[in-house]
Amino acid sequence: MEISYKWLREFIDLPESPEKTGKRLTATGLEVEGVEKVDVIAGGLDGVVLGEVLTCAKHPDADKLNLTTVDVGADMPLNIVCGAPNVAAGQRVVVALVGATLHPSSGEAFQIKKAKIRGAASEGMICAEDEIGLGESHAGIMVLDTDLPNGTPAAKYFNLEADYQIAIGLTPNRIDAASHFGVARDLKAALNRPLRMPSVDAFSVDNQDLTFDVRVEAQEACPRYAGLTISGLTVGESPDWLKQRLLAIGVNPINNIVDVTNFVCHDLGQPLHAFDADKVVGNQVIVKTLPEGTPFVTLDGVERKLTATDLMICNGAEAPAESAMCIAGVFGGKSSGVGDATTRIFLESAYFSPSSIRKTAQHHGLKTDASFRFERGTDPNMPIYALKRAALLIQEVAGNSSATITSEITDLYPTPIEPFRVPMRYKNIDRLIGVQIDRAEITRILNALDIEVDANAADEGIDFIAVVPPYRVDVTREADVIEEILRIYGLDNVPLSTTLAADSLSQFPKIDPNQWQSRVGQLLAANGFYEILTNSLTRPAYNDAIRAALPNADVTLLNPLSEELSVMRQTLLFSALETLLHNINRRQKDLKTFEFGKVYSKVTGENGTKYVEKQRLSLALTGNEEAESWRQKDQPVAYHDLATAVQRVLNLFRVKQYDTQPADSALFQYGLTYIVNKKPIVSLGLVNPKLTKLVDLKQPVFYADFDWQALLSLTSAKPRYQEVPRFPEVRRDLSLVIDKGVTFDRISRLAHQAERKLLRSVNVFDVYEGQNLGADKKSYSVSFMLQDPTQTLTDAAIQKTMQRLQDAFERELGALIRK
After folding, report:
1. 626, 677: one domain
2. Is position 795 within any domain?
3. What are the Cα distances from residue 777, in Å, to 398, 524, 750?
4. Where are the alpha helices (DSSP H) in 585-707?
5. Which residues touch 582 (CB under 8 Å, ≥6 apart)?
6. Which of 352, 509, 645, 787 qualifies as a cystine partner to 329, CB 3.0-4.6 A?
7. Whether residue 656 sits in one domain with residue 521
8. Are 253 and 238 within 8 A, CB to CB?
9. Are residues 336 and 250 in the same domain?
10. Is 403 exposed, middle or buried (0-12, 13-18, 19+ CB in 10 A)?
């Protein structure tokens, strides 16, 4: 949202600079994203001043040029060559100094430089109005009538003071600040200064020559509707001050009537709409809904089909399509809008239900300044004041002294919207803010925010009632009122305690399994996995094939539909294998799948039979790592492709450390089980070929099985924090010839046991096996990252550490260190 600094100063005194004002707004919660200078005309006439022509004589070598000396308030007059036919001594003129960049009304911008023209020196330029962008005339130089001293900036003479556009990142809850008046209200409270409201005392009804029958049939969607008529108007271009105000916030002027409605919208936060009164059939304005599918052409020329819940502003025509004039609070209609020939208008000012406007705007994909405000909640007490303000402005800019207000204000507001009444306790204010604020200051802050402090309504345990105006739709709870106090009091004024802590009036929700399932699913999908959903019923032969790996008995159906679907599954493995087979048979051989599913079993004991239902997560990979391409050879998926995906899931749950043991051989030809807090979290590896053969699957499959409940239990673990190291890491490599039975995990554990202080990580970056090593030997190239958090490592410390590691590998593993 853009705010004009000069416009803001009409509501409140602001001797502070735009930048300082922006910082103060940010401190109150209206975050300023940037402050940008806005010139009334391009360049702002920088380097252009007032001067006086002291002498003027013909150029000796050019009939149409004159040699002048011009006083611009400097120590010495300037010599300027001028070709204007009307230049003469004694004139007050506009002078562009050397270095100034001019932006003419047409053509490219250019810079003034010292020059020699037909042999005569020229140290500036005496300007015509088109040369500085103030008009189109080039008949001669501008001759001024002024007593301002020479050297006065021309921008001051022409009243072209630059404005500043303040960009505010308005959060959805702060719709009360979606106007200059709304922003000024925050500054009023923060700076403890009074507001100046534009006077509407001059408003008066001239006659009753154009009265409208106004009715609201959809009262719930339109709690308040007001309007009046104005006649004797001339539609045309807006005056400069109005255009400059709108341009300063990025709004393009249209015509004087529409510009006033836009101005009041950004001035007070109350959207308005003007209808051509001569196009309102029967002088009737009816707020209602129309039948589903009614066509309506909006101002942009697009025909839209209305829904039965769209709130419409209609006239007295019988046919629904002909009666529609405006989508209430969202967008006007093409047939009833103000045009060049408009002389009489019906001016609307209303309060619409936010939910109604939001639904309509989203359905039609329309986002306008009006819908932006109405769908978040405007001030129900503002429509009449805004209506009077707009009527007076329209009379001023479009009346030519002939505009008259030709009806009384119609104000349909049967059920006024009451303010919010919030019980408050000083102990909660002190607790949440972290410091005790003087009670009188609390009252001052709340009153400055238009929140009344009703101490007479206090009850047992309640210190006062905060009476919040209805335009503050985001302040409905005690915590909201406390936030208002804090943001005006100032976060910087709350000292930090020796023991940092936070407090809250609300309770934090428990872990949401559905939310975590969605996060993991998005992670896997982003890494090329496709989610599958399979049947919980399966073949008994599957469970029989892995009976040794199953801890409990099968759950058998009493009346199965077929032998193929007669038991509940105890693993997601065979569901995944059947899905892979189905796709491979259809020539889709490169597959990555995941599934969230339940497994079932039963336990029979002394207390009878107990049925067990558990949630699991499975991953399956088969085929090639990447699709076939001319750029690379086919690379079959490997164990480490699966391990990488598993690690990404664990990283999401902040699982960094775990123990490992070989995976169950009944399920895997080879693989690992990761154990955290003595609980198996996941098993992964190459599926036993006997099992893939059981489902007639002929290509290798890598599979991982997560205990979902055990994984969720890790989310409650508090994250660990440590200071970012200030000293660099050092890498050292070793090449170890070891027995084939020695795993990298064993090397890593032994390294961390031998060096607990400096060793940060261990990684294997090359593996070699060959006849020259021996049939039962292999070579690991291993890197070691060393770091001391307190100082830079010395060569002696590094050498001592590496020697300790080598001794451990030789002693415990029988390793040969290759050099």
Report:
1. yes
2. yes
3. 96, 37, 19
4. 639-652, 689-694
5. none
6. 352
7. yes
8. yes
9. yes
10. buried
The sign of the CA dihedral 178, 196, 474, 383 is negative
Q: Six-digit token pair at 275?
A: 């209808």
Q: Of 174, 190, 195, which Cα lies nearest the Cα of 441?
A: 190
For residue 166, give the CATH number of its domain.
3.30.56.10
Distance, CA of 232 to CA of 364 (rounded, Å): 36
pLDDT tens digit string along 481-496? 999 999 999 988 888 7
DSSP string, 180-206: HHHHHHHHHHHHT----PPP-TT----
Interatomic CA distance for residues 411 and 4, integer angstroms: 32
Are 81 and 67 in contact by the 8 Å Cβ rule? The answer is: yes
pLDDT in tens, 126-162: 999 889 888 888 889 999 999 999 999 998 888 887 8
499-513, 644-658, 746-760, 770-784: segment of lowest average pLDDT? 499-513
Please identify which residue in the block is written with the tokens 């556009």.
165
User: What CA–CA distance (Å, rounded) separates 596 from 630?
Assistant: 36
**Strands annotated E in 716-758:** 730-739
Q: Do the Cβ atoms of 604 and 553 come closer than 8 Å?
A: yes
- Residue ranges of alpha helices (H) inside 585-681 are 639-652
Beta strands of 420-550 (E only): which ranges?
Answer: 420-424, 452-454, 464-468, 530-531, 537-538
Average pLDDT of the chain to the nearest whole number: 90
Amino acid identity for residue 801 in this structure: T
Q: Are 199 and 41 in contact, with CB atoms under 8 Å apart? A: no
| Residue reference for tokens 């009023």 | 188
Strand 120-122 and strand 115-117: pairing?
antiparallel
H-only helix segments in 637-703: 639-652, 689-694
Angle (deg, nearest 10), helices 180-191 and 478-489: 70
Please state the φ and ψ torsions of residue 121, each to the nearest 5 degrees: -70, 140
Question: Which residue, among 378, 369, 461, 380, has the nearest Cα to 413 in the 3D structure?
Answer: 380
Residues 699 and 762 in one domain: no
